Give the backbone structure.
Amino acid sequence: MRLIVSLIITSVSLAACSNLSKSEHTLRHNYLAITQPGIHMDEAVILIKSRIKPEGSLYVREGVPCRDREELRFQKGTHSIKVNLGWYFWGVEKTPVYGEWCFNEDKKLMDIIVYKNIDDSAGQSTTERSPGYYQ
């Protein structure tokens, strides 16, 4: 029984220390190093799948801009890629992590938005948000 409890505590601790548990700002910075501003949307899809390796879905959304999570009326870019990056546990709470890659009318990367605990159906905002990068 002690072994089972020890394994559970260890696995929860490891999950809490996962890459996705880093701050939204740090994740955004790390992803911008992989998918640099100015790259084409098609190239970004390849890099996201091969280097970032999201645990969830990836949607290429032509004609759909990124939305500012604090001010929903503000939009970034003309096209976007929405990615379910995965999740991590903080204690016993499961925290989902999402990213949006924002592209201009020429399908060149402008910015990345990383956010946690979003229920898109409710249009709620996060408590923490990565700062924007604009070209």
In short: The first helix runs from residue 2 to 16.
